[in-house]
Amino acid sequence: MNHTRVEQPVVRPVSQHHGLRAWLARHQLLAFFGLTYLISWSIWGVEPLLAMVDQRSARWFSFLASFGPTLAAMALTSVLQRERAPLPHQVRRFWVVGLVLAATLLVNLSLLGELWSGSFTVFTVVLLLIITLLPAWIFWNAFSARRGLRELLQSLVAWRARPRWYAAALLLPLLVSLGGLGVLVLLGQPLPPFPRTEPLAGLPTLLLITFMATLFYGGPLGEEAGWRGYALPRLQ
Predict the structure, then answer these.
(1) Which residues, including other chains, have CB under 8 Å from residue 77's CB and lie 6 or more apart?
(2) E strands of the chain, at which residues?
(3) Average pLDDT of the chain?
């Protein structure tokens, strides 16, 4: 039989915590969900008010809400799991973080163009810096000296998998899309126009930027370390 080992989070015994840390250790899921919703919904609550003053800053500010689960998980892990270990793979740490930073700069290039095309405030510039640096900072912590943070974020930098899983990840979305087109044909519906309005020469760049924007700001980086990395093992 093929037995798969499910790694559980390393949590210090409650008796070793005191005060607030002891409460957090006893109510880890409650603390996680509470902190996650506090971060995300506070941002979403302020966004409409900010939009009445500055639409551009409000749009950038809303990007931060998607990071609520990951930031909550990182905060609780830092408080509850303070064990330290030797820093691993420092050379790898710098090139991974450098690539992520370069990618966020590329994604935000259009925002940089908007920044200089009209009036802006110090708050606008600070927001742009935060949304540019935040993904790189999360990847930086994937190589943290704190063992708990490394274990929480290890999926960000553990890319080794069998080729068939890479093939499945790349081909499955294509097969789903083709299946959707097949359903349209069977129902007698018109197919989407092709080629699209975007020039075909620029389509690969457009797809790459869209993919990175979704990865960094659309939910995966900001959510999965929280829901799957922190909450799921405790729910199981």
Answers:
(1) 146, 148, 149, 152, 230
(2) none
(3) 84
Which are the contacts of 152, defined by CB distance < 8 A and separation ≥ 6? 9, 73, 74, 77, 225, 229, 230
Q: How confident is the model at residue 114 (pLDDT cuts 50, 70, 90)?
A: low
> How many angstroms separate the CA atoms of 26 and 23, rounded?
5
- For helices 109-117 and 90-107, give the axis angle rounded to 10 degrees: 50
Q: Indicate the DSSP class of residue 145.
A: S
Express each pLDDT in 52-77 by its tens digit: 888 878 888 888 999 999 999 999 99
Nearest by Cα to 151 from 235, 85, 61: 85
| Residue 6: pLDDT over 50 | no
The DSSP output letter for 220 is: H
Tokens standing for residue 50: 């900010």
Of 88, 24, 72, give the one whose Cα is nearest residue 11.
Answer: 24
Q: Name the residue with tokens 């929280």.
A: 226
Q: Judging by beta carbons within 10 Å of its beta carbon (0-12, 13-18, 19+), is residue 36 exposed, middle or buried?
A: buried
Our CA angle for 86, 92, 97, nearest 5°, is 105
Degrees to nearest 5, angle at CA 218 with 214 and 223? 120
Is residue 139 very low, low, confident or very high in pLDDT (cuts 50, 70, 90)?
Answer: very high
Residues 17, 80: contact at Cβ < 8 Å? yes
Residue 221's nearest CA partner among 148, 122, 153 is 153
Give 100 or 208, the one with higher predicted confidence.
100
